Amino acid sequence: MIRRHQCFCETFSEDHRLRQYLMSQKTDLIVLDHLLQECMGGLASLLNAPIVQYSNWPIADGYVTSMNIPANPSSTPKTATPYSSLGMSFFQRVANVLFHWNIIIARFLQRIWLLETFQRSNLPEVDLIASEAQRIIYAGRSEFLFEVIRPINNRVKHFASNIQLRPSDFVTVIPESCGSETRDGCLCNRISCVLSAEHKLNTSSQLHSTSDYLYSHDFIRHVPEPVKRESLYKNLDRKLVKKRFDTVSMAFPQLHWPSLTNEKFILATFGSLAKAEYIPLDIARKIISAFSRSPYKVIWQTNSPLDSLGWIRNVTIPQNVVLTRWAPVKEMLAHPNLQYLICHGGINTINEVLLFGVPFIGVYLQGDQGSNVRRLADLGAAVMVSVHQISQEELLPIMRKFERNLERMGGAPSKTEPPVVVTSKIPLFCLKKIGPRHILVAGGGGESKTGVLNLMQSYLLTFENKTMPKAPTPMMARLVNTIETDVYATMNMDVVCCSSPEKGRYLIAAGHGQTTGYDVGRDDADKEVLKYKIRSVGRLTTSEKVESFQFSIGKLSESIARNASSRGATEGRREDRRAQYSYGHKCVRFDRSTAGKRVVTGGEDGHIRVWNTRALVEDRNPETIHRPITDIQAHKSDVFDIDISPDGRIIISVGHDGIAKLWDMNLGTLIHEVPFPTECAKGYKVRSIRCTSLGTGSNLVFIAGYNPVSLSSKRVSFLALWVFNRERNAIRTIVVRSTGQGDGIASLCVSSCGNFTGMGSMGGSVFIYDTHEMKQLAAFKETHGIFVTAVEFLDRIAPDVLSLVPQPSPDKPRLAKGPGAIARASIISLSADQTIQVHHLPFEKRSTTSFLIKLFLLSIVLYYLVWCLYAMC
């Protein structure tokens, strides 16, 4: 910056037109910017006119006085100082002092260079220190951001605002809940400005209340007061607001301004200097990845034409992210649905943030931005994020924590902390149980080179030392195993016990997944933990461009498998196999009636295929071409979901067209197409199906979830309990229930006993239903930040340790309790927000009132019975 100033000043001072201007023009007033202005200040002094030094920077801490320790201690924040005044250590104060010295040295060198330049150009010598002391300082609102110190070098200070419009002049939408009189909690997720203008102005006046200086107090009438969000929409001219709304809608059609009326959003902008076209590809991918997992729409003002973004060709822009070169920032800051701002912390943006009372996440990049954001973070109005933190994929957790803090700071009742047991650093798509006390999750970034790993991880469910109703401690999950899955992200998965539970042999089918065996290992604390050994034993490869399925098997304390997916020498043979099978798998399910000897896959070509897993496990030669036992042309496009009846005779499939069908497992023939209930006969499609263990004899009982074809806040989803009788080939509904408006079904599960149904919603909620009546037993609304990708019920018993439990009688075996025994039902959920949560349906509490009523009725019956017997005698 100094070098740029010097080059400009040298060119300017040697230009003959400057001398002509100095001799021919009479100047009445000079307005001068503030940052390292020795050159321009010296040239301006040659005009012999009053100088107003104007800037939006916080400039009351004049650089000349930096060494005046009593008036300007190191603890006082200044522009671009690395540390703020709250809780600074000795070394941080030293760092601030060194920064002050750098400014002084830079200005001293600038003055020497300027005098030499003026001498070479035959210009008059200027006393810069005396000239600066004579200037009028016209300071902007940013003076009130920080603690203002006593001015020593400047004779006159005038504090004012660079904008005469009020925040209400930018309102384009008035919330429906806000009438002419503002209601409490109208904007529950917004915070007011940290400090009112009146308080700050009074503070400034006290600091400057000496007779040595002249102050202008007219600014009190002109500085807009920082708005309190609940009063921003009071007594507005609705016609004028509608006119602004139409103007913005026409000027920025890419923002779909009318849709923002019913949609919460986040605004992201990193300033005019840090244009999006200069952002490295790796950082851009991680920013987009964090934005894609937000529950809100994210509008990113790039300050660059979209065709100039080189990284945009290598990044998939998610549906909830909108890129725009320009955005009406002030109108968006005044919008009631703006949740918060993500910005660079430039002083202009800081002024607007405080003026409109909007909280923000500051990603500081250069110059004064770090100190600006840091001071507001000290006041509780912002959170600091560095580029390094973004590169470490920490932006998304910071956004989620920030959103939870806003709920606590806002006027709405704050939510309880969600029961998170795992927070992952990678996107997870699958969750399954392995035995009663372990869970397996999988996901990753796929083949895109974003730096996001593709992993499978197993966790041991255990408890902390805190109380919980009906349980000694709340549940937690401990990571016990991590397996990398090459360049493939596991998108679907199933697990089955392929022997007795005590032998601990399980089989996993996944998109490039592996499987398991029990083992006892040690964690970081050198404590024994129960974990799985996961090894690959086989693979069904279908196509280079789609997922392939891997299988493996393990045994208690014994690793019996090796990776069978060899490369190199077998590559040519594998290419032949890919040519034969050009389909990709979308879903997978084991046949539990055969202990996993058969597995069913649903393909993106609409086919259902039944595979012999025993043949795959026993013949691990990668050159062997495995063919399906049964191949069914089930649907015209993708098979979206499948499940298998408990007896292994029927496959139920759901196609991308939203139609469910029943198929004969052995013959591969269509048994019945599942009709739509009358409640959702039109405009609906099947989202998911799950078989239950409630059927007896020839009856199959299953659950189907129905979503509207076009989800909206007014449409409802349905859960239906069906029964199919094989002997009569008849199907009918038992009960159909609505799940509520505006929150579609994302995932389904059924407990092993069949009495409970779990549902994860598109809005991040988790529900537990009574399967028999489809009655809602528990609702955990918006516990996740975004849609729930998987739900599973935890086991109430642990059959894998049955031999370790003392058995008093062989006729009545004593069972060991599993993690789910602490409640009527315990459900674990996985979401795209990268968290895993556990929710409990508590045991029913016996009512004292009902007991007393029953006792009263019983006493009446006994009274009349005794009275009648006495009368007969």
From TrEMBL:
Membrane topology: Single-pass membrane protein
Cellular component, GO, one term: endoplasmic reticulum membrane
Spans traversing the lipid bilayer: 851-872
Species this protein is from: Ancylostoma ceylanicum
Full protein name: UDP-glucoronosyl and UDP-glucosyl transferase
Keyword Flavoprotein in annotation: no
InterPro entries linked: Sec12-like, UDP_glucos_trans, WD40/YVTN_repeat-like_dom_sf, WD40_repeat_CS, WD40_repeat_dom_sf, WD40_rpt
PROSITE patterns attached to this UniProt entry: WD_REPEATS_1, WD_REPEATS_2, WD_REPEATS_REGION
Keywords of the record: Endoplasmic reticulum, ER-Golgi transport, Membrane, Protein transport, Repeat, Transferase, Transmembrane, Transmembrane helix, Transport, WD repeat
Keyword hit for Repeat: yes
GO molecular function, one term: UDP-glycosyltransferase activity
One GO BP: endoplasmic reticulum to Golgi vesicle-mediated transport
Protein's cellular compartments: Endoplasmic reticulum membrane
WD repeats, residue ranges: 596-614, 632-673
